[in-house]
Amino acid sequence: MNVMIPDKKIIRRELFEAIAAIPPEVRADKSRAICEAVAALDEFHAAKVVMLYLPIAGEVDTALLADLAWEAGKQVCAPKFCGDSRRMSPREILSHHACSFHNGHGLRSPASTVELLLAEIDVVIVPAVGFDPSCNRLGRGGGFYDRFLQQAELHATTIGVGFSEQICPKLPIEPHDTPLDAVVVDGAVYRCGG
């Protein structure tokens, strides 16, 4: 028997509603737990260069993860969004204050002009609207991360982070969708294929 999977627009709407229903103080506690769980992973320990994202409303706050990376002597970068080309460029960040807003999509980007090579990045922390237990992700629809993660020069471990409310039993997958290596939510770690 075939099970119908709702389309991405419906799933996004339902997930945005679920995220919005999480009280801010609970979201802060969950973000802290998620960052600590990511920092405990072997891949994070071994990494020399970690790429984080700069969170916008409703996303897991990665500030603690950046702090833990800097404390461990890791280099930290974040994506600069090039709106017209829908491309992301990894830029080094040295503090939480070195960020600006990208006007085109409302996404936060580093102000830094220091671009890192994709081959230098060991771990990429990836946001999404939703994930499933097979480490598939549902983004916001812009395709920035899909394009970024498919680049041949990138050999990093990819780790999605989200709230437990963002886990779906199964997401609709298209040919351009790239599964992640792992997904960390409050209370669980999922591994690709497991």
Please give a structural write-up.
- With 194 residues, this protein is α/β, with parallel strands linked by helices.
- The chain has 5 helices and 11 strands.
- The chain is globular and about 40 Å long.
- It has one domain: Rossmann fold, CATH 3.40.50.
Summarize the structure.
By secondary structure, this protein is an alpha/beta fold.
Question: Which secondary structure elements does this structure contain, and how are they paired or packed?
Answer:
Blueprint: H1 8-20, H2 24-39, H3 42-46, E1 49-51, H4 63-71, E2 75-82, E3 87-92, E4 99-101, E5 108-110, E6 123-126, E7 130-131, E8 137-138, H5 144-149, E9 157-162, E10 182-185, E11 188-191
Parallel strand pairs: 1-2, 1-6, 6-9, 9-10
Antiparallel strand pairs: 2-3, 4-5, 7-8, 10-11
CATH topology name, in short, is Rossmann fold
CATH superfamily: NagB/RpiA/CoA transferase-like
Strand content: 15-25%
Number of distinct helices: 5
Domain module count? 1
Number of strands: 11
Largest sheet: 7 strands, mixed
Instruction: Quote the average pLDDT.
Output: 89
Question: How would you describe the shape?
Answer: globular
Low-confidence sequence ranges: none
